[in-house]
Automatic annotation (TrEMBL):
InterPro entries: FAD/NAD-bd_sf (IPR036188), Squalene_epoxidase (IPR013698), Squalene_monox (IPR040125)
Record domain Squalene epoxidase: where: 212-480
A molecular-function term among this protein's GO annotations: flavin adenine dinucleotide binding
Domain of life according to the entry: Eukaryota
Protein name per Swiss-Prot or TrEMBL: Squalene monooxygenase
Gene3D superfamilies the UniProt entry points to: FAD/NAD(P)-binding domain
BP GO annotations: response to hormone; sterol biosynthetic process
Cofactor: FAD
Pfam families assigned to the protein according to its UniProt record, in alphabetical order: NAD_binding_8 (PF13450), SE (PF08491)
Organism: Malus domestica (Apple)
Pathway(s) served: Terpene metabolism; lanosterol biosynthesis; lanosterol from farnesyl diphosphate: step 2/3
Keywords associated with the record: FAD, Flavoprotein, Membrane, Oxidoreductase, Transmembrane, Transmembrane helix
Amino acid sequence: MADQYLLGWIFATVLGAVFLCRALARRNGERGRALVEEERSECVKSVMVSNGECRSTDGDVDVIIVGAGVAGAALAHTLGKDGRRVHVIERDLTEPDRIVGELLQPGGYLKLIELGLEDCVEQIDAQRVFGYALFKDGKNTKLSYPLEKFHSDVSGRSFHNGRFIQRMREKAATLPNVLLEQGTVTSLLEEKGTIKGVQYKTKTGEEMTAYAPLTIVCDGCFSNLRRSLCDPKVDVPSCFVGLILENCNLPHANHGHVILADPSPILFYQISSMEVRCLVDVPGQKVPSISNGEMAKYLKTVVAPQIPPQIYDSFIAAVDKGSIRTMPNRSMPAAPYPTPGALLMGDAFNMRHPLTGGGMTVALSDIVVLRNLLRPLGNLNDPSTLSKYLESFYTLRKPVASTINTLAGALYKVFSSSPDQARKEMRQACFDYLSLGGVFSMGPVSLLSGLNPRPLSLVLHFFAVAVYGVGRLLLPFPSPKRAWIGARLISSASGIIFPIIKAEGVRQMFFPATVPAYYRAPVLSEKQMKKTVDGVN
């Protein structure tokens, strides 16, 4: 416990240093811009610009993308639209059938708009999502996304994951400079520490090789290529059991439903006009057997009594139908090895618990960051210089990615039941805090939705919940027992969030401006861009 209090003191000191760091960053702005120009002078070579498109001067392919899931398909269209010659190799180009990746937060939808892919949620019976409904012990509270300042079309979207991916694949394939090929990549081709391309098997089993200055690996959570590009520390805290409820009317239309059940949360959200997805979280890596009927028994006897009565009959009917699927929930901090000629993205690179539905938002945000970094570069054929330049990607993505990752991990632990009294108090405090409405719910929901991905705001709200929980214990009349539980509550909160922050990287998360790679971001003014174009012409 002494360690947790020491962590709390250290973190308070860190928060105070944030403001000093920002002041220093502003003071050093001119130096930072000078570093940008220095790095750009090394990287931006042989730029050719035509109708706003950036093209390499030699080679048949600019970028190989391994995998055409959400990240790979969106990235292929984005780079192809910018004029890159893209070769996508996907193991299976038929429509995927998954039980996750079905809810896109409003922040992710804004990134979809930024990438010109917003029409990919059309014609797939996608449902609009305006917030969440939280249920606990027979009580419920509705938490709406803060969308007042946005266009009326902006909201979350829920859909069949496979339909969404197929729409993005189809859109990428319409570009003449994007090739989608079905094949299985077996290895990366390395020469003197530089990735030159990939070796793969075609649909017919023929061994092939493909070469490009940059290979981007987006082959998902089961990636067999990431070990050479990162230090994968994969944790599996739980598994999802997936069902589809038909002709089910949720208590709160166009809202995701989260039931704070025992032992862990249950999710409901609509994925089409006639279907509701149910995800039952089961802690640990083992789930009851589906084949011998243990799973159906578990769902009927343990889960069903805890869900809202309006959903009960549809839930039992879905269990009886027997279409039950499971999937392990993985989390993995981003720990890349900067490798010339290669880059990791998507779930192959970074995963978080899917409770908060933030995975696609992180992936799309990463694509925006990478697109902006690559746009000024015409020639990608200097891998070592390019790799050094793209180290800024790992820093620039951190505020958004780390906020969503940390929130997912922390909320899962808070929302899961525990025999520890302090954890029980934290769980109840979280529900009551969000039920207060106003700034108390708007702040956390804006973080959850990806509309305000600020790490400092996340930490402040998290500890505000803990302090609120202590206040509930001490009022109206404190006692030694309640004070002790309150102290343990603060210690428990520290024990939840600090390890996640440490894994994400304190410096990159809270002090990105102190990382040298931060200043390699290519922020070109109109004058500089015109000068570059005129120089080429």
